[in-house]
Design brief:
Distance between the termini: 89 Å
CATH class of the largest domain: Alpha Beta
Structural class: alpha+beta
Shape: elongated
Number of strands: 41
Length: 805
């Protein structure tokens, strides 16, 4: 909402700099985006009078003008505007002047003819092209006849105004009008505003009852009020310059005297209005209802729109002619041939209007006000004000009476609150007189009994209906800076991370120490990607109103987002990428009201983690590399349970022969492996290895006590064993048996050779291990190690059927 400080002078006497006024509004009422000064940075732009206008000798569209700018001699200026003519007052940028967009005007020659300046259009002075009146959009702007040559032009165009650009919050819809803003500033500065009056003259011989019939077929809640007036004999023409200035300084484009009058009243009262060409209404019949499936309406922007059953429409003999509260229809548009105006003033349901504006992408000044609420008690007053203005600007007459389709009894809201409650909440010690004065400044009728206020809130402040609302009003007007600042009392505690927070932070450090870089991806994705790589079965959670088709569903896994990140880097020639992400996934079951949020940690690696150098070749990552990262991470958690890796083909997005589920005892906590080649191709990534762990489950699992053990000072003894074993027997099974039978001094088991080929029988493989024995307290003797080693060999032969080589 743009507030003209010059327009504010009609209401209040505020001899205050605009910047100071804006700061006061921001501290007390609503946010302010800034102060706009239309003439900022411009100088030497004056009124000029075109004395002569001759065709350019070497051009079919340029004109050579002699222009009086208040100096001893007229200036010769070459102009290409089609509407320049002798006798006009125009905008002249003198030589060495500065105009809009920080443009400097110099003397020049145009096709050999000297030009000492420039005749300007409004957009060349910095006006937004959307605000320039259509009749001068392709030419220069013509100033009034009483403009004096040589005077600065800014006052004639309202460019000497200072405009406060306010960002109105949804709860303060009353400030989407000059009246509402004036009431607010009057309370802040303790003034009595001069509110506008309506001077309406009706034609006693012309009764509206016989000419306009209004019927409401919608619910009372959808249309609480609907009224119309009839203005006849209107001459459609351009609005006077003062009205155009007020509109374009408010951010609206002047159209004609009828439309401009409705927009002016909209800005003044905050009440949306709409003007219909009465002669296009068959039998003067208007009805309001919900749209029907399959109906269409061509709106003023020329778009044919298919209506929805939730849309409120204004109809003529049941044919839609207007999208209520949003945009009028092209069929009943006010044009230059219009002479009779049917003027609508109504109140529509905020939810209905918001849905219509969203569904049709029609967010207008009218819909914005209906969505935030309007003053129900001011509808007919605004309707009368607009009718009077249209009749005055268009030399028309107003028919006697108002066609009422529906009316409502608008009563002020009464709220009761005690002085003690106000002081208790605000931490103040205000007296009765101070608080009473604040309510009076706000324009609230107040009575006091036993230190309890009974406050009558007028309809223009529809945001106030609870005692807490009154407390806020007292705080605002009294001044937030004046409220006492007190520290909370209580036993102080030392701030620290809880166990979950600490483990999440440590997990990030572990991943980064392993060479992975943190990534953060969107929690919202497509439904297909949301279901991919899910660790557990779950329904998906979809948004009712997603931002885009790529952000419709909450994720069940972190891997899909990491693969998108890899694809982004691969597309930019970064082929060695190792990423991890710690974040939440969202599991949902049919009986749940909202999804359950689970902390996960995942990683994705493609290419090599070892950079190529003069002595080191690149080493492409494989299953064992990423499994080693996972194993190291799980070891750092000191889990009390046994960690197992079980080959799995249950993940359709993963390679079935290179994927393992991860268990702690019998609880599934994650998986690790290679992305299926088909999946990698779909994501446009190369060979990629990933893992995902349920971090919430890992945090909840019991932990073993970690205790420091010194490095043994006694030597170790190693034994090697090679064996033929069934191809289906896993390394994990062999290692588990060795540990079970290897004795107390077996410290480490290392697989150093795997062979499956020539000289090895079919269905067999050759495995070779090194077993390391060491005692922490004494030197081991060879016989003791040999005895323990023999137990391992016997167990391998008897339990796994191994053939020792």
């Amino acid at each position: 909402m743009r507030i003209s400080t010059q327009w504010l002078q009609d209401y209040l006497k505020l001899d205050i700099p605009a910047d100071e006024l804006a700061e006061k509004i921001e501290r007390t009422a609503v946010e302010v985006d800034g102060v706009i000064r239309p003439n900022a940075g411009q100088k030497k732009v004056v009124v000029g009078h075109v004395e002569t206008c001759e065709p350019h000798p070497d051009s079919d569209h340029l004109h050579v003008c002699q222009v009086d700018v208040g100096e001893a001699e007229p200036l010769q200026i070459v102009c290409g505007a089609p509407n320049v003519a002798a006798g006009e007052n125009v905008i002249v940028a003198l030589p060495n002047s500065w105009i809009g967009n920080h443009t400097k005007i110099k003397k020049s020659k145009m096709r050999g003819v000297k030009s000492n300046g420039m005749l300007c259009a409004l957009d060349e002075l910095g006006f937004d092209e959307k605000l320039v009146p259509k009749e001068v959009a392709d030419g220069i702007f013509i100033l009034p006849e009483d403009a004096k040559p040589g005077e600065p032009v800014f006052s004639y165009l309202g460019m000497d105004d200072e405009i406060i650009d306010m960002s109105i919050t949804p709860n303060r819809g009353d400030m989407l009008s000059m009246n509402g803003t004036a009431h607010e500033l009057a309370a802040i500065y303790d003034q009595t505003p001069t509110m506008p009056t309506v001077d309406l003259h009706e034609d006693a011989n012309d009764d509206i009852d016989d000419q306009l019939e209004v019927r409401i077929d919608a619910d009372q809640r959808d249309v609480p009020q609907y009224k119309m007036r009839l203005i006849k004999g209107v001459h459609i023409q351009a609005s006077p310059l003062w009205l155009q200035i007020r509109l374009w300084n408010a951010g609206m484009r002047p159209i004609n005297n009828v439309v401009d009058a409705t927009n002016y009243v909209l800005m003044q009262y905050g009440q949306p209005l709409h003007a219909f060409d009465y002669d296009r209404l068959t039998d003067g019949q208007v009805n309001v209802r919900l749209a029907r499936e399959g109906e269409h309406l061509t709106t003023l922007d020329g778009e044919d729109r298919e209506l929805l059953p939730t849309d409120l429409v204004i109809c003529n003999q049941d044919t839609p002619i207007c999208l209520a509260g949003t945009m009028g229809g092209l069929e009943t548009e006010v044009t230059d041939q219009t002479t009779n105006i049917a003027l609508e003033g109504a109140v529509f349901d905020a939810v209905k209007i918001r849905k219509t504006a969203h569904n049709h992408d029609l967010h207008s000044e009218a819909s914005m006000r209906y969505e935030r609420g309007i003053d129900h008690g001011m509808t007919e007053t605004a309707l009368d004000a607009a009718a009077a203005m249209i009749a005055k600007l268009g030399n028309g007459t107003v028919a006697r009476g108002v066609a009422v389709g529906r009316d409502e009894d608008v009563q002020p809201v009464t709220v009761t609150i005690s002085l003690a409650k106000i002081n208790h909440v605000l931490g103040t010690d205000l007296d009765l007189t101070t608080v009473t004065d604040i309510f009076n400044r706000l324009g609230f009728s107040t009575t006091v009994a036993d230190q309890t206020y009974t406050v009558v809130v007028p309809s223009r402040r529809w945001d106030i209906h609870l005692p807490a609302d009154l407390i806020e009003e007292v705080a605002r007007i009294y001044g937030y800076d004046n409220l006492p600042a007190t520290l909370p009392t209580g036993q102080p505690t030392i701030g620290k991370l809880n166990e979950t927070q600490q483990m999440i932070r440590d997990s990030r450090k572990m991943m980064e120490s392993a060479g992975l870089t943190q990534a953060i991806s969107y929690s919202l994705t497509t439904e297909a990607k949301a279901k991919a790589f899910a660790l557990h079965a779950s329904d998906v959670t979809k948004l009712d109103f997603p931002m885009s088709s790529e952000r419709t569903t909450l994720r069940l896994s972190l891997i899909a987002g990491l693969l998108d990140d890899l694809a982004y880097n691969n597309a930019r020639k970064e082929h060695n990428v190792a990423l991890y992400e710690e974040g939440r996934v969202f599991y949902s079951q049919p009986e749940q009201v909202r999804p359950k949020e689970i902390e996960h940690i995942a990683g994705a690696i493609t290419g090599s983690m070892v950079p190529k150098s003069w002595g080191v070749a690149e080493q492409p990552v494989d299953f064992y590399a990423i499994k080693g990262i996972v194993a190291g991470y799980l070891k750092s958690l000191a889990l009390a349970g046994n960690v197992r890796y079980v080959a799995s083909a249950d993940h359709p997005e993963m390679h079935p022969g290179r994927t393992a589920d991860i268990y702690v005892d019998d609880q599934l906590v994650g998986f690790v492996g290679e992305v299926h080649p088909a999946t990698a191709k779909a994501y446009k990534v190369r060979e990629t290895y990933v893992f995902e762990l349920d971090l919430t489950a890992l945090i909840a699992l019991p932990k073993a006590r970690q205790q420091y053990q010194p490095i043994s000072k006694f030597p170790s003894i190693t034994r090697d064993v090679a064996m033929l074993i069934d191809d289906q027997t896993t390394n994990a099974a062999v290692v588990a048996l060795m540990r079970a039978k290897g004795g107390a001094h077996l410290q480490r088991i290392e697989l150093f050779d795997v062979y499956n080929g020539e000289h090895v029988p079919a269905g067999k493989k050759s495995l070779a291990y090194t077993l390391t024995y060491q005692d922490q307290n004494a030197t081991l003797v060879d016989d003791e190690v040999t005895q323990a080693f023999e137990k391992v060999l016997n167990a391998l032969q008897t339990e796994l059927g191994a053939e020792i080589r």
